[in-house]
Every structure is written in C-alpha cells, then in structure tokens.
Amino acid sequence: MNKSAGIAVGVIVVAGALATAGAWYTGTQLEGALNDSISQANQELAKSFKGTDTSVKLEMLSLERHFFSSTAHYRVDIQNLSDSTQGGQFLFVDHIQHGPIPLSRLKTLNLLPVMALSNFEMEKSPSSEKWFALSKDVSPLKGQASIGYDRATKGWVQLAPLEMNDTDGTFKFSGMTVNAASSADAQKFDLDGSLDNLQLNVLSPDGPVNIEVKGMTFDTGGTKGKSGFYLGHTNMKVQAAAFQLVGKPQVQLKDFTNTNLAQEDAGNFAAQVNYDIGMIAYGGKDVGAAHLGIKIANFNAVATQALYQLYQNTILPQQQAAILAERPLQLELTPAEREVMNTQTKTLLAGKPRIELEKLSLKTANGESHMQIAVDLTDPGSLDQPADALAVKTVGEVNAKVVLSKPMIRDIVTQQAIREGQTDLKAIADQASAASDMASAMAEMMQLAKVEGETIVSDLHYANNMVDFNGQKMTLQQFMATVMGKVGALGAQ
To answer: Which InterPro entries does its entry note (predicted)?
Structure first.
C-alpha cells in the first residue's frame, strides 16, 4: 500500500512539474501566437471590407503575462472612410489560461493539451455604452476559444439578449450563440449557430415598419481548395420570418431553407445553391411555396480565382468610387491587368463553363409553374472582335423551358381579388378562369408557347447559330427579329 501511495504521489509531483513547465513555456509562446492571430485577422478583415467605405482593424493594447495566466486588452477600430463621424472603438478584455491543461478544463476532466484557453468579453467604452444599455449592463459580446499548439482554434461566441423600448418603436433580440473551429491558417473551418427571435417595430410618420425572424439555425464547414476557394457546405433554416413596410401588406415566409455546396474536381470549380420557402403569405393570405435552384460547373478553378482577385483588387474599388462620385464606371486597367483578364478569361471559356437556373418555381394550392435555363459557354477564339460577334461566339448552347400552370394562374387571380375586398365568389371564379384562358390564348396567338391541357409550355434550344423555338427552327438573327416584333405587338396592345 505504501509503495502504491508513493508511486501515486510521485506521478502527481511529476505531472505538476510538467504542467508548471508547460505553463511557463506557454507564457513565452503566447504573445507570438496572439500577434500572428491578430495579423491574420486584420488581413481577412481588409479583404472582406475592400472596396467599401468601412475599415475594421484589431490591435492588442497590452498583455500582462503571469505564470499560469495572462490578461490581454484589445481594441477594435471601426471607421467609415467617407464620414469620420461614423464608426467607433470597441474594447475587449481577454483572460487567458495557460496550457497545456488550463485549470477550467482540468475541472471538467478535459485533459486534451492546448496552448491557451481564452475567455474574452466586450468592455464598456464610449462606443459601446448604447450596447450595454440594450443588454441591461451585461457584456453584449463574450466568448471562449482554445488555441492548440498547432495554432488550431475552437470555441464559441455569444451575443447577449438585447431590448429597446422608446417612442420610436421596439427592438428585441433573444441573443445568439455561434460555435466555431478552425485549423491553422484557416485551411479548414466549421461554424454553426442559432437565433431564437428577432423583432423590430419602428413607428414613423408614414406608418409602421415591422421585421420579425424566428427559429434561425445555420451550419457551415469547408476546406480551402487548391484554387483558394472554400469547398464544403452551408445550410440555413428559418422557421418563420415576417416583413411589413410602410403602406404595404405584411409578407410572411414559413420554413425557409438555404443550402449551398461548393466542390472542386480535376481542377474545375462547381457550386450549387438552393432556396426553398415552405409557404409565402401576403396580407395574411397564403400564396404558395417557392423554390430557386442555381448551379455552376466546369469553372477552371485557377482562372476563376485569378479573375476574382482582379475584381476584388482592381474593379470593385473603381466601382465603389464611381458610385460615391455618382458617375458612370470607366474601367481603367494597366497593361498587365488587362493581360491577366484576357488570358484567364480565355482559360475559363476553354473549359466550357455551365451556368444553370436549375429551377425557379411557385406552387399554389392547385398548380405549379416553373422555369429552367441552362447556358453553356465556349471559347470564342480571339477576344479582339466586335462585342456583338464576341457575345454570340461565347455562347455555345442554351436550353430554356417555361411552364405556366393555368390552375396556378387562377389561384393567384383569386387571391388578388380577395385582397382587394371582392366577396362574390362566383364572380371571382369567373374572373380567374377568364384570366387563365386569356393567358393561354395570347401565348398561342403570339406563338410564344403551346397549350398542353392545363399548362402553357414554351421551349427554346440554341446551338451553332440556330434556334429551335417551340418546334420552329430559325437562325439567331431571325429569332431576334421575331421576338422584337412580338414584343412590339404586345406593347402596342
């Protein structure tokens, strides 16, 4: 027994010595790790706000280093470059426990070694006084993050509940928690969060403005690909949302979902975005469900990244400057920048990129209408061609289809009549039937579509300068002349 006790005591002493040595080592390494993180954060902030009027910078004001812990103070400087009266400076305090096993993790038997455990929160300052008032004197923002010896981070950020009531209206925010994890140099990340409720009711001389969001959750994760784009998923769900602008009926969205997926294969970038709304209500009356799906594929990853960087670094700042000066954009590129644009555009088009509106639909109680468009681009040859000829040669193939449901048209007309206060149900039904019949008759008369039972269908296929429009084959020039003629006829009516 005594021998066992002696061994146990020996283990504890050794463990304590190692922990002490580790804490000392962490203390010597911490400042460098913090400076690296701040530098990386400022680089990402500069990229995010490039081309805008906003500048955001993070800096460490002080670091008080002790044996087992340290205290850091930070400042976040937010400036509006076009209006010096806007912006502010927000202060944060960070209580850092040294690794390899911070005391708070030891208490919960979380024995995985880390360099440090950070516990940070916003402090009062002239810029944050209003936020503290909204949060009832609780720190509006706080969080925790563990920093590994490999510089990976994991933690959470919490926004406190906020509430405001005054003569101009009310604002209520339930608070929000975001969990995050990132590898060193942010090559891989995961993020998720949730929001229970957000309400904004503003009273104005013209009328009320109301916004409400309930039950929002999101999660995203990705790995940086060879092109520099993050590859992975993003999902967001909102249980219910409502918006009402001055003088307009309320719009309600139920069961909203958004899913995004980005992939990279054989040097090509592809992405898919989907939006779904379980039910749209207008003025308190259900309208229908909606879907929007968009895809891109065969985008040369290196060329796409090069063109994106050119846009971010050169084109976007010029766009912003033109908007601020209220003048048309006159793009100015150096010979080197123009060479990058031309070379990378050629590379991109040589891969035959595809852009597709997979589906845009509206489904009411009795029918669904939808639209699909797919455009395949191709290498047009020399870019030194007239703009109209270049545009035609760049488009390799187009497939489009529009399907209008006559029952859906009747549903929409019926809903509109009821919103306008009509009460004669037979008159409303007759009006709805007349509207759907007129739509199908006009489509056939103008040869814009074919009527197939209770649906109005329009098909278009284009390739090799030839158009097949609802079974009628013609050249692109003939098709454009035909469309312009029909548009002119519709305008005259």
So the answer is: DUF945 (IPR010352)
Alpha helices in 49-107 (DSSP H): 103-107
Which residues of 124-184 form beta strands (DSSP E)?
141-147, 153-159, 162-166, 169-173, 176-182
What does the alpha-carbon distance between residue 67 and residue 22 come to, in Å, rounded to a whole number? 10
362-365-366-370 Cα dihedral, nearest 10 degrees: 10
Tell me the two tokens of residue 266.
């054989």
Q: Say how far apart CA 483 and CA 477 lie, in whole Å.
A: 10
- Contact criterion met (CB below 8 Å) for 219 and 235: yes
387, burial (CB in 10 Å: exposed 0-12, middle 13-18, buried 19+) = exposed
SS (H, E, C) 291-305: EEEEEEEEEEHHHHH
Q: Which of 410-424, 457-471, 479-493 has the weakest average pLDDT?
A: 479-493
3-state class (DSSP) for residue 49:
coil
Instruction: Give Cα separations from 329 to 89, 235, 237, 323, 332 (angstroms).
Output: 34, 36, 38, 8, 9
Neighbours of 189 (CB within 10 A): 17
Reading the block at residue 340, the tokens are: 């990058």
What's the chain's length in residues?
493
Please list, residue by residue across 73-108, b when 16 or more beta carbons sit within 10 angstroms of its beta carbon and e when fewer do.
bbebebbeeeeeeebeebbbbbebbbbbbbeebeee
Q: Round to whole Å and give the CA distance between 408 and 406.
A: 5
CA angle (28, 32, 35) in 5-degree steps: 145
Q: How far is CA 278 from CA 41, 253, 287, 288, 364, in A?
A: 38, 8, 10, 8, 11
